Amino acid sequence: MEKLYGLSHLFMTVFLHNFAIFMVVPAITDVTMAALCPGQDECSIAIYLTGFQQAMIGVGTLVMMPLLGNLSDKYGRKAILTVPMILTIIPTGILAYNRTKKFFYVYYVFKILISMVCEGSVPCLALAYVADNIPESGRSTAFGIISGIGSAAFVCATLSARFLSTAQTFQVSTFIAVIGAVYMKLFLPDSVIDDRHLYTPIISQQKPTVSSVDAKLERNKHLLKALRSFKDLTSFLTSSFTITQAAIVAFFSNLADVGLHGSMLYFLKAQFHFDKNQFADLMVISGISGTVSQLLVMPILAPILGEARLLSIGLFFHCVHMFLYSIAWSSLVPYASAMFSILFVFSQPCIRSIVSKQVGPHEQGKAQGCISGICSVAHIVSPLVFSPLTALFLSEKAPFNFPGFSIMCIGFASNVRFFERRQS
């Protein structure tokens, strides 16, 4: 427990970053629809542009996540964490300034380019930071707590968005993102694995000597090695059967998550005419359930059931959750379905904990980066499959009357379980 208290600055950094990111989620659908299809509740071009954005982000993060993980193993978690903490300020800042059609497209381009580098990097590096400081026996609990911190930020952010105007939502989000970057630089100590493997600084203030030139050549060799991210990804994924299984589960779980994120809000807007405030209410229910589960329930169940059983439970209820969304016959059903997050939020912390235990202390960044890279493949595949399906079944050209058909398919995709009950 004392070691967890030592991570307080990391927890605050993760909280502020997630607060800024999640605050704009309830509003972005309305902003997109207003910019592209003003006055309409159905807009195929908005669905396709969202899908294209997700696919392009997936392509970028597939390359960047293993690279950033490798670089953090060499140069330190804090040095690499600085990049996404600063860059993610830009897209929300654009919409904080103006949300007309022209500015929306500027935001759209910057969002894609920056997210190709930064998407998911803060959680990935935070998990590696935790693994540096927490022994194996406590990692599943620690990973659950850091996920719970993210969920708590999600709840606070969506509650704030619920009571702010759209313009104020983006302005406050930008301000919090700036505060998060400054807080991280001032208070977060870098993570040193042990005294024999201190991180190499990226920038040296000393004048070069013969030995420093040799050291610089050595750093360049490590940098070139880190740049071989795709080769690292494939070799890591085949290094053990357990890691291969984890990668498969992570892929299908994220395939479903990305598909649901790209489809659900448009489905609810078309089916029940939801707006920003109702999206926020729905997300608050889901976020509170997930926060309670990760901070209170998971630390109790993880030592008793083990990560593999918790993972199976999470995947099963994730499928049930999406199935209820897909057959929603009333606007109250999505609210009831959101409560299932108390049971399905176990999945990601369990996968990350299992992978973390398969590698040594000097490969935690690489391990988390490679799993994030596999999740990025889902960001590429999911929009190609589910965006056209969602647009089709929300249009008048649907082959049969089942608006939630794409969400049901997403739910079945989430329930792919390759994990054995017992870990070697």
From TrEMBL:
Bilayer-spanning residue ranges: 45-67, 79-98, 104-130, 142-164, 170-188, 233-256, 282-303, 335-355, 367-394, 400-419
InterPro entries listed in its UniProt record: MFS, MFS_dom, MFS_trans_sf
One Pfam entry name: MFS_1
The keyword Transmembrane belongs to this UniProt entry's keyword annotation: yes
GO CC, any one term: membrane
Claim: Transmembrane is one of the keywords in the record: yes
Lineage: superkingdom: Eukaryota
An example Gene Ontology molecular-function term: transmembrane transporter activity
Keyword list, A-Z: Membrane, Transmembrane, Transmembrane helix, Transport
SUPFAM superfamilies tied to this protein: MFS general substrate transporter (SSF103473)
Entry's localization field: Membrane
Residue ranges of domain Major facilitator superfamily (MFS) profile in the record: 6-424
Membrane-topology annotation of the record: Multi-pass membrane protein
PROSITE patterns attached to this UniProt entry: MFS
Protein name per the record: MFS transporter
Organism name: Vigna unguiculata (Cowpea)
UniProt lineage: Eukaryota, Viridiplantae, Streptophyta, Embryophyta, Tracheophyta
